[in-house]
Design goal:
A: mainly alpha; globular; B: alpha+beta; Rossmann fold; 2 domains; six-stranded mixed sheet; 9 helices
C-alpha cells in the first residue's frame, strides 16, 4: 500500500528541502559573488555587496600574481597520477582479498581502514623527514606517492566490495578456459568490474584534487597544486576576500565540472550491487 | 590414451575430511557420472580433477602425466558449470572464442572452430548476442560450446542441468548424450539426480560422505547393489528395504525388494496391507501400502489398469528370485549373484 501524502505535507517537505539546499549551497554562492567584487566592496554588509559594481579585477590580479596554469597542471598530475597508481596496485590486492581470502584478510582490511582514523598530522614529522632524506620534498613524484598511499585503503576497500559481487565461478571458468592469472584479471575481471573501477577512479580523483593537508605541508613553489594556490591568498586578517574567492572559484571549477558530468556514473558505481 | 586416474586422492577443508582417500580410473571415451546425496563430496572430487581445488594428499594422472600440481589451465580439461558461468560482457561468439584466444590459435582457425561449434549447437543465429539476452537452454549450449571448441582431453560437467526446468532438462540430457556419442570424448558428470545418472552414464560412481560406495554400469548397480545405501539410492521409486522378523524369515538381516518385484492380489498373499497414496503415471501405477506385519510402508508397482481405493485391503507377495539380501553391516550377503 502506498503511503498517502497530503498536499500540506508536500509543501512543507519541498520548503524544507529547498531551505537545506540553499544553506548548503550558500557558501559556494557567496564565494562566487565575492570573486566579482573589489577588495573594498567585499567586506561591506551583504546588501551593499550585492548592490555594488561587478568587476573581473580580482581574477586579473590573481592571474597576474600567480601562475594558475602551473598549479592547475600540478593538480591534474597529482590527482590523476596518485589515483591511477592506486588502481594499478589496488586491483590485484582487491582480487586476492575477494577471491582467495586467507584467515587474515578481514584483519588486514580492518587494519588498512584504521590507518584512515589516524590523524595525518601525527605522522607529518616522520614523513617530512623521509621526504627530505629521499629528496622528494616539493616534488610532484613525492605528492603522487603520498596521496596514493593515503587513498589506497579506500581504493582497495571499494574495489574489494565490487569484486565480491562478481561470481567466483566465472573466474574459475576463465581458468578452465586456459587463462593465466594476468589474462583472468585483464580480460574477465576488469571488464566486469568497470562500473566499480570507474567510480573508484572518480571518487579518488576528487579526494586527491581536494586534499590540502599533505599538499600544503610538503610543497613550496615547484609542485604546489591548486590547494596551495588558494591558501596563498588567505591571511589571518582576512584582507583579501575578493582575491581569495576568485582563486577558490578557479580551483574548484574544474573538479565541479568533472563531478557534474560523471555524477550518473558515480552514483551507479557507489550503489553497484546494492539491489540484485 | 585419454585416461584420468586418481591415486589415493583425499581432501580436507580444515579439520573436515570431505574426500577420504579414493582410487578411481576413468578410461578413454567413457561417460562417468558421480552421483550421491548433497554434501557427499561429488562436486569437490570434480573440482580436484579440474584443479580448482588442491588435493590434500594423493595424485591425479591425466594422460599418464602427474598433474596434481598443475594449474587448471594446464590440464587440458574443459568444464561446464551449474550457473553456466558465461562472460556477461562478451558476445556468444567471444565467449566460445575465449579458450581459443587463450590458447593463442591463429585468427582463421579460431573463426572456423567457433563457426563449427555454433553450428553443432544451433547457436549460429545468436553469435552476436550477449548471454543476458539468451534463454536458460541457450546459455547452457553456449557453455557447452565454450567447452567443446578446445577439443580437450575430457569434459567436466558440474550439475549442468540443475538450473533448467523439467522439460528442458530432458531435452538437454539427450543433447549431452548425443554429443558424447558424436565426439566420443571422455566426460565426467556430477549430479544428485539418479535418473540423469542412469540415463547418461557408461559408469556410475556412487559417493556418500566422501567415500566411493560402488562403481559400475547403471544396470550393474541396479541389479547388484553392494550395500543398502546403493540399493536405496539407485532406482526410482526407491527399493523397499525391510529388516526385522520378516527379513529373518527370508534369511537375511535386511532384504531389499524393488517395487516391480511384487505380485499383487486382492484376496490372498504373504503380506497384507492397507492402500495409502496411489501415484498414477499413466504407464505404471505406484501404490504405497501400509503393512502391519512390516511396521513400514511398502511401494509396489502395479499395472496402470489396477483400480484401488484409499484404505482398501491388498495382499502382496515378493518375488523370491529377485530378493536382495544384506547383512547386519548393510553389505550384500555372499553367495548371491
Amino acid at each position: 500500500m502506498a503511503r498517502t501524502v497530503t498536499p500540506q505535507k508536500k509543501i512543507l517537505n519541498t520548503a524544507l528541502s529547498w531551505t537545506l539546499a540553499i544553506i548548503i549551497f550558500f557558501p559556494i554562492f557567496w564565494i562566487l559573488v565575492l570573486s566579482f567584487k573589489t577588495e573594498g566592496d567585499a567586506i561591506r554588509t551583504p546588501i551593499e555587496v550585492l548592490t555594488s559594481t561587478w568587476t573581473l579585477e580580482s581574477y586579473s590580479i590573481v592571474q597576474e600574481r600567480s601562475d594558475y596554469l602551473k598549479h592547475f597542471t600540478n593538480s591534474i598530475i597529482i590527482a590523476l597520477g596518485s589515483t591511477v597508481l592506486g588502481i594499478i596496485i589496488g586491483v590485484p590486492a582487491a582480487w586476492s582479498m575477494a577471491f582467495v581470502p586467507s584467515k587474515r584478510t578481514r584483519g588486514i582490511l580492518m587494519w588498512m581502514l584504521s590507518t584512515k582514523m589516524l590523524p595525518a598530522v601525527g605522522v607529518l614529522y616522520p614523513i617530512y623527514l623521509i621526504f627530505i632524506e629521499l629528496g622528494i620534498l616539493d616534488s610532484r613524484t613525492g605528492l603522487v606517492v603520498i596521496l596514493m598511499l593515503m587513498n589506497l585503503p579506500i581504493i582497495i576497500w571499494m574495489l574489494y566490495t565490487y569484486f565480491r559481487e562478481i561470481p567466483a565461478e566465472i573466474l574459475e571458468a576463465a581458468r578452465m578456459d586456459g587463462a593465466s592469472l594476468t589474462s583472468e584479471i585483464l580480460y574477465v575481471l576488469t571488464p566486469m568490474a568497470v562500473p566499480g573501477i570507474a567510480s573508484t577512479l572518480l571518487l579518488n580523483i576528487i579526494l586527491a584534487w581536494n586534499e590540502a593537508f599533505w599538499t600544503l605541508n610538503l610543497t613550496a613553489a615547484k609542485a604546489a597544486p591548486l590547494t596551495a594556490f588558494i591558501a596563498s591568498y588567505s591571511s589571518p586578517e582576512g584582507l583579501f576576500f575578493a582575491k581569495l574567492s576568485a582563486a577558490s572559484v578557479m580551483a574548484i571549477t574544474p573538479i565541479l565540472i568533472m563531478g557534474w558530468f560523471s555524477q550518473k556514473q558515480l552514483v551507479r558505481g557507489l550503489t553497484f550491487g546494492a539491489v540484485k | 590414451m585419454r585416461q584420468i586416474e586418481l591415486k589415493q586422492v583425499s581432501k580436507h577443508f580444515g579439520d573436515i575430511e570431505v574426500i577420504k582417500p579414493i582410487d578411481l580410473q576413468i578410461n578413454d571415451g567413457e561417460f562417468v557420472v558421480f552421483v550421491g546425496p548433497s554434501g557427499c563430496g561429488k562436486s569437490t572430487l570434480l573440482r580436484l580433477i579440474a584443479g580448482l581445488e588442491d588435493v590434500t594428499s594423493g595424485q591425479i594422472f591425466i594422460n599418464g602425466k602427474d598433474t596434481t600440481q598443475l594449474a587448471p589451465s594446464d590440464r587440458e580439461l574443459a568444464m561446464v558449470f551449474q550457473s553456466y558461468a558465461l562472460y556477461p560482457h562478451m558476445t556468444v561468439r567471444k565467449n566460445i572464442d575465449f579458450p581459443l584466444r587463450m590458447a593463442g590459435l591463429d585468427k582463421n582457425e579460431r573463426a572456423r572452430r567457433v563457426q563449427e561449434a555454433a553450428k553443432a549447437l544451433n547457436l549460429t543465429d545468436y553469435l552476436e548476442r550477449r548471454p543476458g539476452q539468451l534463454s536458460g537452454g541457450q546459455r547452457q549450449r553456449v557453455a557447452i560450446g565454450r567447452a567443446i571448441v578446445r577439443e580437450p582431453t575430457a569434459f567436466l560437467f558440474d550439475e549442468p542441468l540443475s538450473n533448467l526446468d523439467a522439460a528442458l532438462r530432458v531435452v538437454m540430457r539427450l543433447e549431452i548424450s548425443e554429443l558424447h556419442q558424436r565426439l566420443g570424448s571422455t566426460m565426467i558428470y556430477v549430479t544428485h539426480d539418479q535418473v540423469e545418472a542412469m540415463t547418461l552414464a557408461d559408469k556410475i560412481v556412487v559417493l556418500q560422505a566422501g567415500v566411493i560406495e560402488q562403481v559400475g554400469s547403471p544396470l550393474d548397480l541396479y541389479h547388484n547393489p553392494k550395500n543398502t545405501f546403493v540399493a536405496g539410492f539407485i532406482g526410482s521409486p526407491k527399493m523397499n528395504l525391510l529388516s526385522g522378523s520378516e527379513a529373518e524369515k527370508l534369511g537375511a538381516h535386511t532384504i531389499g525388494i524393488r517395487p516391480e518385484h511384487f505380485t499383487i492380489e486382492k484376496d490372498s498373499g504373504l503380506w497384507e496391507g492397507k492402500v495409502g497414496v496411489t501415484e498414477r503415471l499413466g504407464s505404471d501405477t505406484f501404490v504405497h501400502l501400509h503393512c502391519p506385519q512390516l511396521e513400514q510402508a511398502i511401494t509396489v508397482r502395479a499395472d496402470s489398469t489396477l483400480s484401488v481405493e484409499y484404505g482398501e485391503k491388498l495382499y502382496i507377495t515378493p518375488d523370491t528370485d529377485q530378493l536382495h539380501k544384506f547383512d547386519a553391516n548393510g553389505l550384500r550377503s555372499h553367495g548371491q549373484t
